[in-house]
Amino acid sequence: xxxxxxxxxxxxxxxxxxxxxxxxxxxxxxxxxxxxxxxxxxxxxxxxxxxxxxxxxxxxxxxxxxxxxxxxxxxxxxxxxxxxxxxxxxxxxxxxxxxxxxxxxxxxxxxxxxxxxxxxxxxxxxxxxxxxxxxxxxxxxxxxxxxxxxxxxxxxxxxxxxxxxxxxxxxxxxxxxxxxxxxxxxxxxxxxxxxxxxxxxxxxxxxxxxxxxxxxxxxxxxxxxxxxxxxxxxxxxxxxxxxxxxxxxxxxxxxxxxxxxxxxxxxxxxxxxxxxxxxxxxxxxxxxxxxx
Length: 292
Known about the structure:
Layout: E1 6-13, E2 26-32, H1 40-46, E3 51-54, E4 57-63, E5 66-70, E6 74-80, H2 83-102, H3 120-125, H4 140-148, E7 166-173, E8 179-187, H5 191-194, H6 234-244, H7 249-256, H8 260-274, H9 279-288
Antiparallel strand pairs: 1-2, 2-6, 3-4, 4-5, 5-6, 7-8
Helix pairs in contact: 6-8, 6-9, 7-8
């Protein structure tokens, strides 16, 4: 990935209330010449307080004192001081992204997604409100505040409801043994039961793979019997199978009798759903999860 430029730069006046008395009151919108999603995990792993999210895929962070939001092929930034400042800012941003990509083998990417903090009020609603003190805190409110600060876990309350699902993040290793990416998999099993696959990795649902791309009712499971976080559609499974076998987008288009643009959209959706960044990682995921 080498970003050589951008287009469609437009400026909007206003936005940042505290800057209305200064000249920093412009917001910029622009499009990159090519897709920059590959660098998102490296921004997430190196820039403090970056917010990486999948739906829609984007990352937010502060660069040169301006808030910046990047999508795969477009971006926004504010506050800026007008056209000249916006041009200089975007040029610097492109150089920053290219430097990150050039240094990616020496950096540690982060695929951790931003989760908005849960309020103490919402936590209190899940507590019995008996102030039983079995958690070690004098009141349920104090216990909720401790959860919010990360000092205790919800299960430290004996009456806290069991989770409906549990999400685990697994590493995807490259040929050199280094972690290339991660997969986030959600289980609807109880926490204790979710680890039972270690004793019998071929049991449970492991044999219930989606064997037909046209069978929407058959849920897709990973090799340990855990349901994938976001199910792939039948068409996406077909595209993923061709992709994993090394087919290009035009070849997939011809094989499935769909337009190249539709193939590209399916590939992007697949990457977002299974939390990978490129075709190689998607192929590895497909093999690991017996899609092919």
